[in-house]
Write a structure and sequence with these properties.
Elements lengths: L2 H7 L19 E4 L5 E4 L1 E4 L1 H10 L4 H31 L7 H52 L3 E4 L12 H9 L13 H7 L4
Parallel strand pairs: 3-4
Antiparallel strand pairs: 1-2
Helix pairs in contact: 2-4, 3-4, 4-6
């Protein structure tokens, strides 16, 4: 996955902290609801971040992004070719040439048009990727709910377990990684990440 795509993924993380738990045990326990009824609390963990990334990289979503990127490159190609030609003319024209200033102005206009169009296409690509991420997250969330219900879990904490240290190059990436791991310690036996991956055929 491209670095830019990974950067899009982290902002969609929803905190997995659940307030109001009186106990840190992961064993089933009785808890009173607002109306006085008791419910059994059984906690699981799931690395939804990992699953969303895996789904984004799958054949279900990656080809569409690649096609959108190729289409964007094709749309900007005429402006790129014009910019390259204007640059060659500016570089090959002597500064004492009477046409030099006009050639430089033409190059500057071509550069401005290219940059404006490139930014526009980049925003479109970002919106396309964001929509994909949101769709993936909804699918993963739905599958997580189904698996949790099948396995008898009443609460699933969303957390990230492994992070490539090579990706942690600045303060923002470190803070994002910390916020993505609200669960500091938990037994492997209660993690349902593999089950959700299997359900989505991503294992």
């Amino acid at each position: 996955m491209r670095t830019a795509e990974r950067l899009f993924l982290y902002p969609i993380a929803i905190a997995g902290l659940i307030l109001g738990l009186a106990s840190t045990t992961f064993e089933p326990a009785a808890r009173a609801t607002a109306d006085g009824a008791e419910v059994e609390l059984k906690i699981a963990t799931c690395d939804l971040f990992k699953i969303v990334e895996r789904l984004m990289e799958s054949d279900r979503y990656a080809p569409a992004r690649e096609e959108a990127m190729a289409a964007a490159e094709e749309r900007i190609r005429p402006l790129q070719e014009r910019l390259e030609e204007a640059q060659r003319r500016a570089q090959s024209t002597p500064q004492d040439d009477p046409l030099f200033r006009d050639i430089v102005r033409d190059f500057q206009r071509a550069q401005q048009e290219y940059q404006a169009r490139a930014q526009e296409l980049m925003r479109e690509q970002e919106m396309f990727t964001t929509r994909q991420i949101l769709e993936c997250f909804r699918l993963v969330r739905s599958s997580t709910e189904e698996i949790a219900e099948q396995m008898g879990y009443t609460l699933v904490l969303q957390t990230r377990f492994k992070q490539d240290d090579d990706e942690l190059q600045d303060m923002q990436s470190v803070v994002r990684a910390m916020l993505a791991r609200p669960v500091a310690v938990s037994p492997d036996a209660i993690d349902i990440t593999a089950d959700v991956l299997f359900e989505l055929r991503l294992d």
